[in-house]
Amino acid sequence: MRILIAFDKFKGSLDAPGACAAIARGLRKHWPDAEITECPIADGGEGFVNALAGPLHGRWIDAPAHDALGRPVTTRYLVAETGGTTTAIMEMAEASGLWRIAPHERDPLHSDTRGTGEMIRHAIEHSGAQTILLGIGGSATNDGGAGMAAALGVRFLNANGETIAPTPAILAQHLESVNTSGLLPLPRIQVACDVDSPLLGPLGATRVFGPQKGADETALPILETALEAIVRCSGGREHATRPGAGAAGGLGFGLLHFAGAELVPGFERIAELTDLEKQMETADLIITGEGSLDAQTLSGQGPIGIARLAKKHGKPVSAFCGQADQAA
User: Fold this and answer.
1) Is the pLDDT of residue 299 over 80?
2) How far, in Å, CA of 39 to CA of 29, rounded?
3) 3-class secondary-structure state, position 126
4) pLDDT category, 244, cuts 50, 70, 90?
5) Contact status, residue 247 vs residue 197, Cβ threshold 8 Å
6) Where are the beta strands (DSSP E) in the chain?
7) Which end of the chain is more exposed for a tag (fewer CB within 10 A), N or C?
8) Alpha-carbon distance 222 to 173, whole Å?
């Protein structure tokens, strides 16, 4: 019996490697002779790097950065060889994630993604990375990637040509122009993203995701005004309409527009890097799951990606979860 275990995280309880290991321990008690392969998966959010750390045999690098509120933190990212290329693999939540901010501190008006930009800069200057793979999700920010861009050399200016802080509260009131002449030369950047929202409007970053980051009805129009100002002053209208531009509080837009990044489905990139489909070909049973199987799962997150690949090869799949709704 060959069993492939491919779990995403159980948020707040187990990361993806931990979930895979727990299932494997249980199976070995009953089928001690089974050949079990553990392959953690992720879709671009928290746990994205951990899911790749084992399969890619990368090395961890520590990097100084700032959290969403500007406090110094130590972050880490993975450097691994992928297809003959040195790749820095990181996730924005490591620096700019909601998990670093206590519930009573959540304040997207005064938060930014500078720490994410600092991680990218560190990888370019210190790790020898030729490409960067960045998972975005779990953000505490709604700055359109302005903080990230500022850390990489973009200047956001007021009417007097003075550099201003890249936080939504300041940008909404004072942004008049954007200067990209100091932008650091960047390698190829791929962005693993599981959200297809545009930047602006009722389905955009602010309205859909702002409230879960602490934005109330007073803050929401200010956040939207800040994003509109960034688009207007930087000539980013076309990038603002792209699917995924609204991901991570508009960081998707910032990476597209300022960093020339490419947005890719997170699960598909992980499946490619871990040779997941090849492992499925020899499996007799596939077991997957995550904390919640719901409508969002069906939009392309890990377990549904596993099920689709398994169907292609005629393999049976079992799923475990903490909760499931009718959509699933």
Assistant:
1) no
2) 19
3) helix
4) very high
5) yes
6) 2-7, 35-38, 59-66, 72-82, 85-91, 131-135, 155-157, 177-179, 188-193, 262-265, 285-293, 317-324
7) N
8) 9
Angstrom distances, CA of residue 147 to CA of 80, 117, 194, 252 = 26, 7, 21, 13
Per-residue DSSP letters for 186-212?
--EEEEEE-----SSSTTSHHHHHGGG
Token pair 């930014």 is found at 112
CA-to-CA separations, 275 to 83, 182, 268, 301, 309, in angstroms, rounded: 12, 39, 10, 18, 12
Answer for the pair 272, 89: CB distance below 8 angstroms, yes or no. Answer: no
SS3 230: helix
Tokens of 189: 């950047």
Query: Using alpha carbons only, what angle is made at residue 98 by residues 202 and 9, rounded to the nearest 5 degrees?
Result: 95
Closest residue by Cα to residue 49 from 161, 132, 168, 159: 132
pLDDT digits (tens, 9 = 90+) for 171-187: 999 999 999 999 999 99
Read off the tokens for 31.
Answer: 């089928």
| Structure tokens belonging to residue 151 | 């850390």
What does the pLDDT look like over 257-297, one tens digit per residue?
999 999 998 888 888 888 888 989 999 999 999 998 877 77
Tell me the C-alpha distance between 196 and 283, whole Å: 32
Are the CB atoms for 89 and 60 separated by under 8 Å? no
Strand partners, 88: 79, 132
